[in-house]
Amino acid sequence: MKINKNIIKTLGLTSVLFAASSCSLTDFGDMNVTPNAIATPVTSALLTNSLIAMDGPATTGGLLGSLYCQYISETQYTESSNYSTQQVAWDGIYAGMLYDLQNIINQNSNAATAVYASNNGSNKNQIAIARIIKAYTFLTMTDRWGDIPMSEALQEKINPKYDSQQEVYTALFKELKEAAAQFDGGVAVKGDILFAGDATKWKKFANSLRLVMALRISKIDPTTGKAQFIDALSGGVIDANADNAAITYPGGTFKNPWFSLYDGRKDYALSSQFATILSDNQDARLQTAAAPNGKGQIAPMPYGLTRDVATSATYADFSFVLAPALRAATSQSFILTAAHAYLARAEAAQLGWTSENVKDMYSKGIEMSWKQWGVFDQTKFNTFMTSANIDLASNAMTKIQTQRYVAFFPDGNMGWAEWRRTGVPALKPSVNATNSSKQIPRRYAYGTNESTINGVNYKAAAAKLTGGDTQDSRVWWDK
């Protein structure tokens, strides 16, 4: 997999520089004003654009995570699977969806533009949704890089500081709770292709995301994790597949990212490691996790092969990731679901954070996942739940955490984060690893632009990492 190490957006040199220009556009009078352009942004269009980009980390930006947690294997260019250093730039995230979301907030907060913006829905509702999506985006970023610019980002600061990951988590817990409480029952928001302006579903999404975050800090700060989990659960979470956060792509210009990934290319296959977890347990989800090969068989690819071996005739007929119907141009991509919420509740109950029934939450989570993927059969499900590797009679926590890892497939951001936190499943690093530690990477290294564009703050952040700015250093919660 090839990562562009110097992403330069038309919108600006880097995300931080773009969001922190040293001069105002008004300094140049009207010389840069296009008379045929819309002077005030259409917030509904900004929202749709941001939501389309919301699934990007699960495919393009998150492919590294999918490789590191061994959901998928590379079939041609195997450098990333073997842990060559990837200095991944975040420029496009700041200069793209985060800028658009901040613009939505600004337009709806400014008295001079709020009336016009309200044509696209209640001002407060638009702000609440933008805040929630921003929080989700910052979460996926901090879990990949660790310390990141957040509190001073998007505020016209040339050199924004890097907030510690602990500070980011604290701020995001607060942001999600406040945003969920901000909905005012006003006009539904336009441009919302996730929940069609349904405030109740947005609140459930925000609270469900807090469940995931709370468990993510369960080792480093269990007291805060428990308090946040209980508070979020009391506010209502996703408890039915009808409320799942899933982007349905219209096709045309906006195609499902997995469709685009295979449009003329075949660089990725279902990983043998992930396929084995499903096949060993006769898990019906295997039929949706991959497409049959030319012989009509599920043929996963071993993980971490050298390029010569991966491109040999032995592995020429492999299974693409996801069944064809699930990666069509107009297919859905799941962001956060009832399965994720129920399985989080199972782990929290097992930890003693809640008095909910562990077995019930666990069973319901797997049932929701099977139904989400369209493979539910009651008889097969009953057999599955009573099998030795699934039943909670022994090693309950490991089994719950394994099912959380399975349920997040194919979202590499979430799957990799859960594996780093729990060590479940017991993944083995590639035997052909090229990094110095020969171990699975624990974070993204910062992009090459950061040391020059925001050098002082970059150096301060890198100095806090044990071992420096490397893939082997660990983020705050990874203990």
From TrEMBL:
<dbReference type="InterPro" id="IPR011990">
    <property type="entry name" value="TPR-like_helical_dom_sf"/>
</dbReference>
<dbReference type="InterPro" id="IPR041662">
    <property type="entry name" value="SusD-like_2"/>
</dbReference>
<feature type="signal peptide">
    <location>
        <begin position="1"/>
        <end position="19"/>
    </location>
</feature>
<dbReference type="Pfam" id="PF12771">
    <property type="entry name" value="SusD-like_2"/>
</dbReference>
<protein>
    <submittedName>
        <fullName>SusD-like starch-binding protein associating with outer membrane</fullName>
    </submittedName>
</protein>
<keyword id="KW-0732">Signal</keyword>
